[in-house]
């Protein structure tokens, strides 16, 4: 345990964060020099060209499926092809298709490969292994056949943790978010149990091929029922509970797997078609959550007579509760990384990302900057930290970015908006829906900006210790040794 904690703290060393090692994506920016490119492949060697193209499309499929932006995926595919000697290639990355074509001159037809990208459960370990494989292809002169075998092993490998660990991590994440929203122990326990039920049922539905939209609808329905029933029995049980905190935690868990960051990043960085497709998927899946929540509210009101309390207009950090709420946000980020099968070395930095995001949002609650700007600044800071950590090859920046902003997703705003629309607070409801959309876009845009700054950042010059200070310190050490 002591050794593990030491390694974790070593990862957070500021000197390592600003070191001159670059992330894989940093080395393949447009205009950068290739590292040890192979001898160009003969344009008549169709087999060799096809082998390299197929390898590049497989790598791109894993990256795109993990939520990597289309432009970054395209650049890494071009980089892999260039390292193996294929420089004249055209790459087309869309929402669920990757097509790579290598030109062979004016007299020969091009060679083209295509890969379909299918939805799989999020696995950040797979993403990190692909990142290391690209690094090894760059530095260790792996043959295409060896790289092919390694990609196949990465794709077919089981998850690094059992399903029950991931399920409990989802529950821990919901508990952290409920505390971040102001809940107490009872709310955290109820959020944990509700989320475990949602994840378990949706996993079984996914195994029988149920569309994701209906999984989101059922998840939204389950998120409401336990909180509403407990609230209806609160007077008899002698307890006090805010059901909105439990429901909002469940909504955030359902939203966390969606590619919000990738969609906005695609739209910003020059892939608008892919960005629109991803964003429409996010809206559609969010619509499924809203449908489930709405059906549950109406059903409970019409059959059982349980009416949830009207929505309030503020959620502020109290000076006394600010420390536990910030810690809860960091724990939620760590739990999301664990639930998404991140490597153990990524968990401390995910915790750090969540801590930074929650701290900035909490500090902004004492000012008048507003939720949209506060969340954007927090996401930019998380993206910057993720990018700096990726420069040391600790973990892909996407892992830190997504985990860091997940506790900040506007689950409570979505619930307030929906409840206001269904009730007599229509204007407030639409206002909260618009606020949720603005916060979501602010989070994604902030992460994109932070990663861009980290990618453009040069190694800062650390201040040099004066000679007299070094001599004084040396004399003190010698004096202690003589004693």
SSE inventory with pairings:
Elements: H1 2-11, H2 14-17, H3 46-65, H4 70-83, E1 89-93, E2 97-102, E3 111-116, H5 124-139, H6 144-156, H7 163-180, H8 185-207, H9 212-232, H10 234-237, H11 243-256, H12 260-269, H13 272-304, H14 322-339, H15 347-364, H16 371-391, H17 397-405, H18 411-422, H19 426-456, H20 467-482
Antiparallel strand pairs: 1-2, 2-3
Helix pairs in contact: 3-4, 3-6, 5-6, 7-8, 7-11, 7-14, 8-9, 8-11, 9-11, 9-13, 11-18, 12-13, 12-19, 13-18, 14-15, 14-17, 15-16, 15-17, 16-17, 16-19, 18-19
Mind explaining what this structure looks like?
Residues 54-299 form the Threonine/serine exporter-like N-terminal domain. The two termini are 34 Å apart. Mean pLDDT is 79; it is low at 14-21, 28-36 and 459-469. This protein is mainly alpha-helical. The protein folds into two domains: 34-156, no CATH class; 163-456, no CATH class. The longest helix is centred in the middle third of the chain and has 33 residues, at 272-304. α5 runs antiparallel to α6 (144-156) and α15 packs across α17. Strands 1-2-3 form a three-stranded antiparallel β-sheet, covered by helices on one side. It has helices spanning 2-11, 14-17, 46-65, 70-83, 124-139, 144-156, 163-180, 185-207, 212-232, 234-237, 243-256, 260-269, 272-304, 322-339, 347-364, 371-391, 397-405, 411-422, 426-456, 467-482, and strands at residues 89-93, 97-102, 111-116. The chain is 67% helix and 4% strand. It has 20 helices and three strands.
